[in-house]
Write a structure and sequence with these properties.
- It is built from 20 helices and twelve strands.
- Strand 7, helix 13 and strand 8 form a beta-alpha-beta unit.
- The protein folds into two domains: 114 residues, no CATH class; 281 residues, Rossmann fold (3-Layer(aba) Sandwich), CATH 3.40.50.150.
- Helix 18 packs antiparallel against helix 20.
- By secondary structure, it is an alpha/beta fold.
């Protein structure tokens, strides 16, 4: 399948006008796409059928939850709810409640994609919701989560074949799409800034600062044998090679690999960098250092021990692992790790954000790696996501010209805002870890 065929469009052609026209609410502006192609967006095109009783119960639960929060929830034809704050404007309450009643929080995101609700400041509204995530569902329903929450599809397990399919669905969308909102380094992970607020023209330097911190943690320099798990578009590999390292970088994305290889060649570093289409479980060789940036989120809890053992096996005695990982609170991870969410369905199939406890316990229990350092910098990710989101919004017309329709635009706007809100609320964080492997005489590798 070609890149053009993978793109999600309303017309099948990369028409800049496709999906750009919206219904308009005179009070608040665009409501949503005028039409939704059911072939591309079957669960957005039609509101799922729901019984009157189920919809009524959902409406009661949703309104009860919103009434307790520091926001304003406006339902068409009803007084505002909430304690004051950012506005959530529900233009089609019947569809909104039907979607949530049948699909839970997946339905909440789908209702936004369909234009049934909106928010003048989407990040602010989602930040309130993220900050009260544990309180939104009553305790009795939380305890029965296994009965009502959708489960992960078996096909999205992160086996070698499953991982290739999951990665392709996100990272192989289009290199041109990612280039619209990333900086010139094409780095798709949290930057490290000198101060806030930042501007897009400072983003490349902030990404280099992040990369350099990781390479310093791993003690990468002249002659270092470096394994990178998760290439992205190659910036870290390029920067490590410029230090004199010999880099083997692994990716499962063909689109990313093709561009990363071009960038390595253009930099004249082809003799120092090898970009391989290879699963981390299939890696070979011995390395002085391993670096992996925001890749563990795609591994899945089932395979975390396999991931850390694979790294341990590749590291030479005395070697170092520099790991960057998004994290969430341990109790929320345990409560939600089996739940199929909107992010899984539309953005990162098979993904799971770990907790710091999960990372550290897995490394401790399944390897001889020793935790040497951990630094958190979640506020920097919120700022990174803000810059990406603003650039994505500014260049919406160019995304449409690439063949991405208005529903896709709302999907990615929601994804970027939802992620930013997670970091602004403190529900999410990001860590840089240093693990070291003892010399043979200093420790024993656990099974």
């Amino acid at each position: 399948m070609t890149t053009a065929e993978r793109r999600i469009t309303t017309t099948g052609a990369p028409d800049a006008e496709a999906g750009a026209e919206s219904r308009v609410d005179r009070r608040t502006g665009p409501v949503g796409p005028t039409s939704v192609d059911p072939a591309h967006w079957p669960d957005i095109a039609a509101v799922p059928p729901a019984s009157r009783l189920r919809t009524a119960l959902t409406a009661a639960l949703v309104r009860r939850a919103l009434a307790q929060l520091p926001l304003r929830a406006r339902f068409a034809g009803s007084p505002d709810l909430g304690k004051g704050g950012p506005l959530i404007d529900v233009r089609d309450p019947a569809a909104f409640h039907a979607r949530i009643g049948t699909r839970g929080l997946v339905g909440f995101g789908e209702s936004y994609m369909a234009g049934e609700w909106d928010a003048p400041d989407l990040v602010a509204a989602l930040t309130v919701l993220a900050g009260h995530a544990a309180e939104l569902i009553p305790d009795p329903l939380q305890r029965l989560r296994a009965l009502w929450a959708p489960r992960h599809p078996h096909a999205e397990r992160n086996t070698p074949d499953g991982s290739r399919a999951n990665i392709s669905r996100h990272y192989d969308l289009s290199n041109d799409l990612f280039a619209l909102f990333l900086d010139d380094t094409l780095t798709y992970s949290s930057a490290v800034f000198r101060g806030f607020p930042a501007s897009h023209d400072l983003l490349a330097a902030a990404q280099h600062r992040k990369i350099d911190r990781l390479l310093d943690l791993a003690d990468v320099g002249e002659g270092t044998r470096l394994l990178e798990i998760g290439t992205g578009w190659g910036e870290l590999a390029l920067r490590a090679a410029a230090r004199g390292a010999r880099v083997t970088s692994l990716t499962l994305s063909r689109e990313q690999r093709d561009l990363a290889v071009e960038r390595v060649r253009a930099a004249g570093l082809g003799d120092r960098v090898s970009i391989e289409l290879c699963d981390y479980r299939e890696a070979v060789g011995t390395y002085d250092a391993v670096v992996s940036v925001e890749m563990i989120e795609a591994v899945g809890a089932e395979f975390w021990p396999v991931y850390f053992r694979a790294i341990d096996q590749r590291l030479a005695p005395g070697g170092r692992l520099a790991l960057q990982a998004i994290t969430m609170p341990h109790e929320r991870m345990l409560a939600s790790r089996d739940t199929f969410t909107w992010i899984h369905k539309y953005v990162f199939p098979g993904g799971l954000i770990p907790s710091t406890e999960a990372i550290e316990e897995t490394a401790r229990d399944h390897t001889g790696l020793r935790l040497a350092r951990r630094d958190a910098f979640g506020a920097h990710y919120a700022e990174t996501l803000r810059l990406w989101r603003e650039r994505f919004t500014e260049r919406a017309g160019e995304a449409a010209a690439l063949g991405f329709d208005e529903v896709f635009h709302r999907l990615w706007t929601f994804y970027l805002a939802y992620s930013e809100a997670g970091f602004r609320s403190g529900y999410l964080d990001v860590q840089q870890y240093l693990f070291t492997k003892p010399n043979s005489a200093e420790g024993v590798v656990r099974p």
